[in-house]
Amino acid sequence: MKIDNSVGSVSGLPAGDSRQRPGKSASSPTAPAGDKVELSSLSARMQEIEAALANVPVADAGRIAEIKQAMAEGRFQVDASKVADGLIQSVQEMIAAQARRA
Question: I need a surface site. Which of 8, 27, 32, 96 has the fewest CB within 10 A?
Answer without folding.
Answer: 27
